[in-house]
Amino acid sequence: MTTADNTATFPDHVPPELRWDHSLEAFNSELDDPFMAAARLLDGPPIFWARDALQGAPGWVIARHALLQEAFVDWEHFSSTPGPGLMKLLGIKLNPVNFDPPQHTAYRKLLTPLFTPKAINHMESAVRDTCDRLIADFADRGSCDFISDFAIPFPSYIFLALMGMPVEEAPKFFAWEQMMLRGETVEERIGAAKDVLAYLEGHLARQKTKPATPLMEAIVNGQLADRPLDDREMLGMFYTFYTGGLDTVYGTLGWSMRYIADRPGFQRFLRDNLDQLPRAVDELLRLFSVVCTQRRVTRDFTFHGVEMRKDDIVAMPIYVACRDPDAYPEPHEADLGRKTPMLAFASGPHLCLGMHLARREIRIAIESFLTRFENIHIPDGENYTYHAGPTFNVDSLPLAWSPTT
Ligand code: HEM
User: Which InterPro entries match (predicted)?
Assistant: First the structure.
């Protein structure tokens, strides 16, 4: 393994050949494209120990599709109970994300009925209206910044609608989100996370007297086998929807639209074959799998020849697994004929609860752009910017187009 310098200390159970004296985040930011940067890990060992695996914390990194898929299912060795991170500092457990079965199963059962494909069908017209309203604001201009004008506000408005929060709150949530993700200091990021928590506490108090949406009703009236949910459990659910459904959708939309804008042939194909969009959305989700999640090892054990110890942190960079040529031949290009299911929504007990909603949002957004605008492109001399933290996100994406004739 590369050892950039010898300043880091490594735990004794990590053999020298698996020690990587790097920050995963810095490594992913070394090229113009973080997915290509991260895919370089596929040339190294399938599992290794990074000095900084996740937000400054050292730990194992699993860098192959087959192994990551196995670890996602093996919750008895790879626990979702929290390792380091902002939520731990706030004393919040993301719910159901930070729990293992059987507790996880009990929480998840309360939420599942709200996110079935049928339930999402009921939300489709609201999602379309939100999309149409946002596009109407810039359609006549012939250009936009896809990220600030569309990709950030779109899932944020849908989050507000799910939660029964007034749309006027949107700018506050955008600002907190930006600060939590990109605040320059840890204090700024923690400050924003605390502001969100304070807001959610107020929202919970109001929802307990009069729940505004089916999701709020399911949470505030949620019953476990022997008791109702308590306030921390409900707040953990609120926080999950805030952290789970915004950044991920906005990230996937940003990278997908950049890909479409860069490839006129693919763009024309999609416009002429809108029935292929559901397949295309899944393939774009694979290509631009934006998440790196984490697990905690529950007891000493050996995983594919690697000795892991209780409480070791394990980074799960799904964006690496999704570019693994053993699972996806020619992994860096879209291929709508792939058979291997994509892993962007993880697998096992924590398979993304919001995946049907996410797919619908992304499909509606791409369809709306393709049917309204032709020749969507990045104007000459302009470029996109991005950051590669725990999720990969485009920060700005200038687009221009001609109206459809
Ligand atoms: C492109 C969009 C999305 C991606 C790539 C994505 C990805 C993921 C991944 C990888 C996980 C598993 C995390 C883990 O195992 O540690 C997850 C879980 C989850 N996601 Fe998503 N997600 C997306 C959109 C959404 C949306 C729109 C919502 C809700 C409105 C949502 C709600 C959740 C919830 C509640 C969980 C926790 C499930 C559990 O712990 O049982 N996600 N998501």
Answer: Cyt_P450, Cyt_P450_B, Cyt_P450_sf
- What is the best residue among 62, 79, 111, 248 to mutate for testing ligand 1's pocket, by most ligand atoms within 8 Å of CB? 248
- 153 C-beta closer than 6 A to ligand 1: no
Ligand 1 contact via 114 beta carbon (within 6 Å): no
How far apart CA 113 and CA 104 sit, in angstroms, is: 15
Give the H/E segment covering residue 253: helix 247-262
- Is residue 53 a contact partner of residue 25, using CB atoms and an 8 Å limit? no
Atom 16 of ligand 1 has which residue's CA nearest to it? Answer: 293
At residue 274, φ and ψ (nearest 5 deg) are -60, -20
Strand pairing of 385-388 and 57-62?
unpaired
What is the token pair recorded at 217? 């009703």
Does the C-beta of 317 come closer than 6 Å to ligand 1?
no
Residue closest to 92 by CA, chosen among 240, 208, 247: 240
Domains annotated on the chain, with CATH: 16-403 (1.10.630.10)
Distance from residue 64's CA to the centre of ligand 1 (Å): 20
Residue range 39-74, pLDDT digits in tens = 999 999 999 999 999 888 999 999 999 999 999 999
Instruction: Give 25 Cα–ligand 1 centroid separation in angstroms.
Output: 21
One-letter amino acid of 386: Y
| DSSP structure class, residue 137 | T
224 CB burial (10 A radius; 0-12, 13-18, 19+): middle
Tokens at residue 201, please? 């506490």
